[in-house]
Design brief:
- This protein is an alpha+beta fold.
- Among the domains are: about 1-180, Immunoglobulin-like; about 435-570, Jelly Rolls (Sandwich), CATH 2.60.120.380.
- It has helices at about 185-200, 240-255, 275-295, 335-345, 375-385, 385-390, 395-405, 410-420, and strands at about 40, 55-65, 70, 70-75, 80, 85-90, 95-100, 110-115, 120-125, 140-145, 155, 160, 165-175, 180, 185, 215-220, 225-230, 230-235, 300-305, 315-320, 440, 445, 460, 480-485, 490-495, 510-515, 520-525, 535-540, 545-550, 560-570.
- Helix 1 (about 185-200) packs across helix 2 and helix 3 packs parallel to helix 4 (about 335-345).
- It is elongated, with a radius of gyration of 31 Å.
- The N and C termini lie far apart (about 105 Å).
- About 50% of the residues are buried.
């Protein structure tokens, strides 16, 4: 055949097999796509000492994606490059590796090979970047497997009877969608999204150091989407849900680069009464998904769709820019969405890919900026520093860590704006210092009907810092004093701010009552009120005078938060 000839092989399409097999046992045609090849004289055609001819095999791999937005699947199925993945060129008859390399950012590859004579060629791409140290850059190893720990692969069409005197171009191979029951997914989409996560982490804006320990992503996992240590699992229906994949990868990034005290367990959007350690862990993972999408010019949306549908099919969604549609209900450090949206506000600015260029759409704009650092890098230094060292990690440590790392008066005001927007008050309230009996805040005895929503005092915060909150604070004890007459029967109680049913704060108050002129506790309660609230009920006052009571907490995790107090006459009609 003339070196100038450009034969075209018939174009065919086939679905990738849903069964992942070991490399040594895979059938060599599990995925075919549009295939072209071009023969040209090899620049390395010498055959020194019978070692074979050197030649280059080139081509490209791509996968069928499934486009989505805030309203779910759009109905479009764009073809995207398989980036940074391992490529092997094989002798199709003997399954022998002739050369290896990796795909570039456009999915293309050019692999140096060697063969002694005419050979049947086939190229394989794996959902793995085991060769990343040599080819794929400074981020961690990523591999996507099935539940049996088998890496997926796609194969080009076989180029039969290739003369190694010439280079070969295998054209473009397309890996199409796979089915998991009624749901569609694509392991190379899972791989590509995970690669994007580590490209973000290794980007100059973040500047994370290379981690030798990588991660494994399982798809489809029969137990759903979750993460454990260095493994992220993706449910069958989530194989195209980029934000869900990034959320689970975010958990792994948390484990690799920082420290998570997330206890796990049931959680859902709209719950403002979570364990604050869980709220931070889940909120961080959702924030991380939005940060990666934003970095690559996409809207910071968390959207979970029904994997069996071709358009629409939204099961869960939130816009991290505005927290809609949960912006009216998400509040406090025990709410994962309040955590996610607050963290996103720390790195977000008017350049976000949100359809309104030049405008920061956050409802409580903070514009937290650090001179000489990107917002992403400033947060990463907190995430890998103070946050990594925290015990019983909650959102409070993010506040403390940012102040410790980046404190200025301007930073305090900007940071306060971001946190206040979602009901997280990690600074002194207006009644501080009130952490001693002689500094107690006076309250009035309420004689309204016991059932009335009246008599509650202003909002207080279990938090104290010696300089008003501009440096790290601690769990607090607040003192109150009330004038009572002997023979009066009273209820002393706490509640969540304005009677919120699901806390909207991480507070877990404890009440202790003291008689006039003494330091001996005469009554105490921790959890007799609604939720985690305290309530000393039907206390018969034995003597008249200034009765003091203290609000603090015995909970080492829920040390902070907002609350109200009331001293109510139990004799009220």
């Amino acid at each position: 055949m003339s070196p100038a000839a450009t034969p075209i092989i018939a174009r065919r399409l086939a679905r990738m097999t849903p069964v992942a097999m070991p490399v040594s046992a895979r059938r060599l045609a599990c995925c075919l796509g549009f295939v072209l090849f071009v023969l040209a004289p090899s620049a390395f055609a010498a055959n020194p000492a019978g070692k074979g001819y050197s030649f280059v095999v080139s081509g490209a791999f791509e996968y069928e994606d499934k486009a989505w937005d805030m309203d779910g699947w759009t109905g479009d199925d764009p073809l995207l490059p398989i980036r940074g993945a391992d490529v092997y060129v094989l002798d199709a008859q003997r399954n022998k590796v002739l050369g290896r390399g990796t795909t570039a950012s456009d999915g293309s590859f050019a692999v140096s090979c060697r063969a002694k004579g005419v050979v049947d060629l086939i190229a394989r791409v794996d959902s793995d970047n085991r060769l990343h140290k040599k080819y794929a850059g400074p981020f961690a190893r990523v591999r996507v497997t099935n539940a049996q720990n088998k890496v997926y692969a796609a194969f080009s069409q076989v180029l039969a009877g290739h003369d190694p005197v010439f280079d070969a171009d295998l054209g473009t191979t397309t890996a199409l969608a796979m089915s998991d029951g009624d749901d569609e997914g694509q392991p190379f989409n899972v791989f590509d999204v995970t690669v994007s996560a580590f490209e973000y982490v290794a980007s100059p804006e973040v500047g994370a150091a290379h981690k030798r320990r990588g991660l494994r992503v399982v798809w489809p996992d029969p137990f759903g989407s979750y993460a454990w240590r260095r493994k992220a699992s993706v449910a069958g229906e989530d194989g195209y849900d980029d934000a869900v994949i990034l959320h689970e990868v975010g958990h792994v990034v948390h484990n690799l680069y920082s420290d998570s005290d997330n206890p796990g367990g049931m959680h859902f959007f709209g719950d403002s009464d979570q364990d604050p350690r869980l709220a931070f862990g889940e909120g961080y993972a959702t924030f991380f998904a939005g940060a990666v999408l934003n970095h690559f010019g996409r809207e910071a949306l968390y959207v979970d769709c029904d994997g069996s549908m071709q358009s629409g099919g939204v099961e869960l969604r939130v816009d991290l820019e505005t927290c809609a549609p949960y912006d009216e209900t998400s509040e406090g450090a025990a709410d994962e969405l309040a955590v996610a949206c607050t963290l996103f506000d720390l790195i977000d600015d008017e350049h976000a890919a949100d359809g309104t260029p030049g405008i920061d759409d956050d409802p409580f704009t903070s514009n937290v900026q650090i001179v000489g650092q990107t917002p992403q890098h400033a947060w990463w230094s907190v995430f890998t520093g103070p946050v990594r060292k925290a015990r019983r990690l909650t959102m409070n440590h993010a506040w403390d860590g940012w102040l410790d790392a980046h404190w200025t008066d301007a930073q305090f005001n900007e940071l306060q704006s971001a946190f206040l927007g979602f009901g997280m008050d990690f600074w002194n309230d207006e009644y501080e210092p009130d952490n001693a009996r002689e500094l107690a805040t006076p309250v009035e005895l309420s004689t309204h009907p016991a059932w009335a929503n009246a008599g509650w005092g202003p909002e207080h915060t279990l938090y104290y810092s010696v300089d008003g909150g501009r440096t790290s604070g601690t769990g607090d004890s607040d003192w109150f004093v009330v004038q009572l007459e002997a023979g009066t029967v009273v209820d002393v109680e706490t509640r969540y701010p304005f009677g919120a049913w699901d806390a909207r704060t991480q507070v877990d108050p404890r009440l202790t009552l003291f008689a006039p002129g003494g330091n001996k506790a005469v009554a105490t309660d921790d959890d007799s009120g609604p939720g985690r609230n305290a309530s000393i009920r039907n206390f018969s006052v034995p003597e008249s005078g200034a009765w003091a009571f203290r609000v603090d907490t015995s909970n080492p995790t829920n040390r902070y938060g907002r609350y109200q107090v009331r001293v109510q006459s139990a004799d009220a009609p």
